[in-house]
Amino acid sequence: MHAALSSRLSLLAVVATLLLASAGQEASAAVILPGNKNVENVDFERHIMGLFGRMGCNAGSCHGSFQGKGGFRLSLFGYEPSKDYASVTRDGFARRLSPVDPDNSLLLLKATGQVEHGGGSRFAKGSWQYRIFREWIEQGAPWSKGSGTVAKIALNPPELAFTKAGETSQIQVVATFADGSRADITEFTDFRTNDDAVAEVSSLGQVKSLRPGSTAIIVSYRGNVLPARVLVPMELPAGFQYPKVPEVNFIDREVFARLRLLNMVPSNLSADEEFLRRVTIDTIGQLPSPEEVRAFLADKNAGKRAKKIDDLLAHPLHAALWATKFSDITGNDTASLEQPVQSKAKRSQMWHDWFSKRVAENMPYDQIVHGVLCATSRDQLPPEDWIKQVKDLEDAVAKGYVSDYANRPTLDLFWRRQQAQPIEVWGERTAAAFMGVRLECAQCHKHPFDRWTQEEYRSYANVFGALAVGVSPESKKEIDAENAERKKKAAKNNQLAVIREVFIGKAGKGLMHPDTGRPLPAKALGGPEIPYEKGIDMRETLFQWLRQPENSFFSRSFVNRVWGHYLGIGLVHPVDDFSLANPASNDKLLDALAKEFAGHAYDIRHIERLVLNSRVYQLSSKTNETNRLDKNNYAHSYIRPMMAEAVVDVLNSALGVTEKWGPEVRPGSKAVEVGASLLQNTTLTYAFRIFGRPPRTTACDCERAMEPALPQKLYLMTDPTLLAKFNDNSGRLSQVLKTTKQDDDMLDELFLATLSRLPTATDRKNFADYRRTVTDRRAALLDTMWALINTREFILNH
After folding, report:
1. Which end of the chain is more exposed for a tag (fewer CB within 10 A), N or C?
2. Residues 713, 719 contacting (CB under 8 angstroms)
3. 732-742: b (≥16 Cβ within 10 Å) or e
4. How many CA atoms does the CB half-sphere of 785 hold within 13 Å?
5. What are the φ and ψ backbone dihedral angles of 215, each rounded to 5 degrees?
6. Residue 240 has pLDDT above 60, yes or no
7. Residues 753, 754, 758, 763: what is their CA dihedral angle, to the nearest 10 degrees?
């Protein structure tokens, strides 16, 4: 029975092939496309597969899914023409095409909605898309293998500079194929806009400007992606003269040049109290004290802002804040660290302290990365000396909160997770952390909007093929003896901290080619092959390639992180999503910052000073009529949420209290100094979570949520633990009430402690009116403090 059915299916395929071949002998007619362009000979790879992609047929949510849809499966995003051709012409009993009667082809009947189709109608009968498919079927559904292999695509124009909102322009897409031929493939291309508030784009590439701003149109044809920058300037009244805006450094020059093209006038310079609050939160995650605000306002020195920046960059909490950010970037996930459970949080703290020490010393960024990327456990120590170091470290951790782990040359904790990680994970984590590239999509298929293929994904992962976590041959005798001794003791205290080592072993065969199954060489991402040699750490070769000044990833990704932290939105945003479909909002500025960084030996503090001293950073958040719609050109300071750790510290600072941590955290610590991603204190864990502190379980920067949410407001208004801090006997309110100050003086103190400014005349009048209704001074001040804490001005950085 089965054999008979198989024979019938084979016969059907043969018949279908003969029918297709005979149909192809007929003369073909040109298909007229929109704009009166002709397609003389419809090509499967160039046209049919282009349309499958343009209409979304081969997307993961449709026929490109692993299971396909309705029994019809296409390769995801059309990367495998041979499989797609077989699926269209042979699968499904070869019923999808009817060469003798093309209009009755199931492919056309479903796409036009004449037969039930889960994807709905994709085009109308008789449309140009319909005629393309029909002509191809009538030609005999030919396929010339490799005919659509793309060498490159080009856009005309590559940038669209409109003069005002409401104008339209056409993008033409020209492909150069592997055989050297060129063709206009605009109608077979997918277009999308990165910001549909600034510009919209039609399915045929016509762009319409909608409102002032800048964005990009992303053009995609069969896996080849290019962005077209769009600029829409403000319409200015007749006679308007663009003002001359002072420039401090090249940052201002590049930003203001872009703003002039957009007819956007930068906001005024921020007031002293606005600047002081912003820069203090950004650099150390705290509020300036009332005394600091008063002193800064009273200082008439023209260079006081630059001096304050230098003081803050040298502050110990600045190193702690960036250690927190580096902990996010490198995945300091407490839950994944090694046993015993009691030491997990302290290991996270060691991780944090390792970064904090280096930021405090202003160690060059490339050296910091080397200490992470190329870490080993022994750092060339003899096994016996290293085991003694491990035991001393464990004793220090068991007794208290201080260890000398930060003095180690490398961060082996990055590699020694509790569960063994496959080399793919190391590829994804290191690419995101040190190159700003998200590789996850390329694990299963070519990245839909970037250059990375499965082959490149696997070759890069193979760089980590010789990395091992366990017992090295050199240390085996000493480690086995120590672990055996620990097992004896474990029977008494039921705790076993097994010694494991991060070391370079023998490389396995690694990941294979996804199609051929053949071995793949280790290769830098977008770079050269890295040959394996016994005893040579391939990560060292990768690092040397990374730190080359001309490398397009290393400097750009980190200066983008710095920019994103201080300005609120990265030049590439999200900051770890460098891709062809996510171009920088200001390419010239990003390139200039990266060049400056590499040219100054990767000096982090040098870049921070440049950014913080720029007029761009110091602009007011108050907008003017020309820049009120700006979202990514830095015409004004962006109002933005604070890091979760800063929220906790800022609340405590305003209320004048010290946080009560659990046993796993050093007493008296600020939130930005806490390394653990998990805490025993459930109240603080909740506060961290709702304000966006990440669990650090993935390689994605998106884990740290920075969006306002309702639970945050409810926490500020009603959380019992937070409300109890208002009445703390050692808190600010109690201290203010102990003085003999008048109401106005007390009001000044509360405003300076929360909003870092003195109350306005309106603020004073509102308080005076309220004070007349509430005769109890403590109640009136407590209500006022609660109201200030619950303002947007308090909880947002601006």
Report:
1. N
2. no
3. bbeebeeeeee
4. 28
5. -160, -165
6. yes
7. -130
The tokens for 620 are 């007011």
Which ranges of 237-315 would DSSP assign to H, the alpha helix?
Answer: 250-261, 272-284, 290-298, 304-313
Cα gap 293→169, rounded to integer Å:
52
Dist CA 4 CA 10 (whole Å): 10
Q: Which residue, among 41, 26, 25, has the nearest Cα to 132 in the 3D structure?
A: 41
Helix axes 454-461, 423-435, angle to 10 degrees: 100
pLDDT digits (tens, 9 = 90+) for 480-508: 888 888 887 766 555 567 788 999 988 87
- Sequence-distant (6+) residues with CB within 8 A of 86 are none
> Which residues 6+ apart lie within 8 Å of 402 measured at CB?
396
Dihedral over alpha carbons 520, 523, 529, 533 (to 10 degrees): -80
Rounded CA separation 205/217 (Å): 9
Each residue's pLDDT tens digit, 703-726: 898 888 999 999 999 999 999 999
- According to DSSP, the residues that pair with 231 across neighbouring strands are 161, 214
Would you say 206 and 197 are in contact if contact means Cβ atoms under 8 Å apart? no
Residue indicated by tokens 């891709």: 579
User: Is residue 484 within 8 Å of 387, Cβ to Cβ?
Assistant: no
DSSP one-letter string for 526-583:
TS-B----TT--HHHHHHHHHTSTT-SSHHHHHHHHHHHHHHSS-SSSSTT--BTTB-
Strand-pair category, 224-232 with 213-221:
antiparallel
Question: How long, in residues, is the chain?
Answer: 798
Name the residue among 236, 237, 256 with its Cα closest to residue 245: 256
Render the burial of 141-178: b for 16+ CB within 10 Å, e for the rest.
bbbeeebbebeebebeeeebebeebeeebebebebebe
What DSSP line would sit under 166-223, residue for residue? T-EEE-EEEEEETTS-EEE-GGG-EEEES-TTTEEE-TTSEEEE-SSEEEEEEEEETT
* DSSP annotation string for 110-126: HHTTSS--TT---S-TT
By C-alpha distance, which of 156, 241, 170 is closest to 199? 170
Pick the residue with more confidence: 246 or 33? 246
